[in-house]
Write a structure and sequence with these properties.
single chain; 469 residues; alpha/beta; Rossmann fold; Helicase, Ruva Protein, domain 3; five-stranded parallel beta sheet; elongated
């Protein structure tokens, strides 16, 4: 039988917790301070410990050193003075959950209900780390760059807890995939993961979608509707673009996060939900607070554990790894065996990817679709050059008396530089064929100017197709 330890200097809190936990079938021991708690640990190592942050003889986190983390003990911090700093400190010390006084006993029941999975979760996380080393994968995420390994470490730390997570990153960096990975590595992974884009729901309907409505609650409400919080009960709710949620609804969201209680639209009956919340934004959340787009109190409640998703341009070799993964998916779907020609690989590595992983996936799909059916390589299609990132110089100066050959040379080289070295794009801008561009570069005796017949042929075929359509 599982055993729980309750450490709190308030006798009424100890007794209420003990009664609730015993009703769940656990044995319970109690202590009013660190000294008593250490005695209880010597007598019987607990499977779960509920520890008050502020005790008469020290901090509750001091007790974590007396419990072997390898044994799989769940450590739940309790406090009457919740702050972001205290939550993060408790997490770093080894806590797996965080309760605020007055204690929500529905959450206590949920924590105890997840107890049998604690050891399994650690094994799963260890297996995922091993998979990362072997294949560059971590759950649903892909990449082995230092920037992503830091993200994996953070996810591996926070996933087994019930803490709220704030994912911050530019559009297309994979925030929803990161949220799915957190869910997969949590004790809730057998329950639903529901993703909601707050900016895609009509402001008039978002409250009904979040909390549900009763039949007849408003015009058109001809049936009972379960909202996201009700449907995600026991699982994870991912709120993407949280700064797009109407401010008036943010007040109700904060209440649900603090109490686990909500009401459907059109009724005064309270309902209880146990939901792990992950929020995301592509904006600076602190700037959103200053602009009035995000309530400060909600920001602090969501930002307990922030994770920044790096842009693709900062992930180095992950670009090639991701591109190959996307191509493998397309090959499997269409029963092809295409590979990237050197020209495409070079373009992908030299591009800044302002659209991040989403833009890379779209490019690989275009290159696969535009390739000839009989070819074993993808097509060499031009990248969409970012207009928001101009090169160092967009003009050249032709002094009086310069020869036409030299003027041509400077124009070609300047255009190539403007296009980031992507020859297909440079030829398109100059209005010449790729074959002609290669011939000119060979005349200038520049490195990497060797004619690539396969690349030229693919580019000409792509151009011909565009002309025919």
């Amino acid at each position: 039988m599982a055993h729980a330890l309750i450490v709190d200097d308030d006798a009424s809190t100890r007794e209420a917790l003990a009664t609730t936990i015993r009703d769940e079938g656990l044995t319970v021991s109690v202590a009013g301070n660190l000294q008593e708690a250490r005695v209880q640990i010597q007598r019987h190592t607990p499977d779960v410990a509920f520890v008050d942050l502020q005790l008469p003889d020290g901090s509750g986190t001091d007790l974590f050193g007396d419990l072997d983390p390898r044994s799989g003990v769940m450590l739940v911090m309790i406090t009457g003075h919740a702050t972001v700093e205290s939550a993060v400190d408790a997490l770093k010390a080894g806590a797996t959950d965080y309760l605020v006084k007055p204690v929500n006993f529905q959450r206590v029941n949920a924590i105890v209900g997840r107890l049998p999975r604690a050891g399994d979760l650690k094994a799963e996380i260890g297996a995922l780390r091993g998979e990362l080393r072997r294949m560059g994968r971590f759950g649903s995420m892909l990449g082995s760059s230092p920037a992503m390994q830091q993200v994996y470490d953070q996810i591996g730390r926070v996933a087994p807890t019930a803490l709220s997570v704030m994912l911050v990153g530019k559009s297309g960096t994979g925030k929803e995939v990161a949220a799915q990975t957190i869910h997969q590595m949590s004790a809730r992974h057998k329950r639903d993961f529901i993703a909601v884009n707050c900016g895609a729901i009509s402001p008039n309907l978002i409250e009904s979608e979040m909390f549900g409505h009763e039949r007849g609650a408003f015009t058109g409400a001809d049936r009972e509707h379960k909202g996201y919080f009700e449907r995600a009960n026991g699982g994870t709710l991912f709120l993407d673009e949280i700064t797009e949620m109407p401010v008036e609804l943010q007040v109700k969201l904060l209440r649900v996060l603090e109490t686990g209680i909500f009401m459907r639209v059109g009724t005064t009956t309270e309902m209880v939900t146990d939901v792990r919340l992950i929020a995301a934004t592509n904006r600076d959340p602190q700037q959103a607070v200053q602009e009035g787009k995000l309530r400060l109190d909600l920001y602090h409640r969501l930002n307990v554990f922030p994770i920044n998703l790096p842009p693709l341009g900062e992930r180095g070799d992950d670009i090639a790894l991701l591109a190959q993964s996307f191509l493998d998916e397309l090959n499997a779907r269409f029963d092809t065996r295409k590979r990237f020609p050197p020209a495409v690989s070079d373009m992908m590595l030299s591009y800044s990817w302002p659209g991040n992983v989403r833009e890379l996936r779209n490019y690989v799909q275009r290159a696969h679709i535009m390739s000839r059916p009989e070819s074993d390589t993808t097509a060499v299609v031009p990248l969409q050059i970012s207009l928001s990132t101009p090169a160092a110089s967009s003009t050249i100066t032709i002094p009086f008396g310069m020869s036409l050959d030299e003027a041509d040379r400077q124009l070609i080289l300047a255009t190539l530089e403007q296009c980031g070295g992507v020859k297909v794009r440079a030829a398109e801008v100059l209005g010449i064929s790729l074959k002609t561009l290669y011939n000119r570069l060979m005349e200038y005796r520049l490195p990497d100017a060797t004619d690539n017949d396969e690349e030229v042929g693919a580019a000409e075929e792509a151009a011909a197709r565009t002309t025919r359509t």
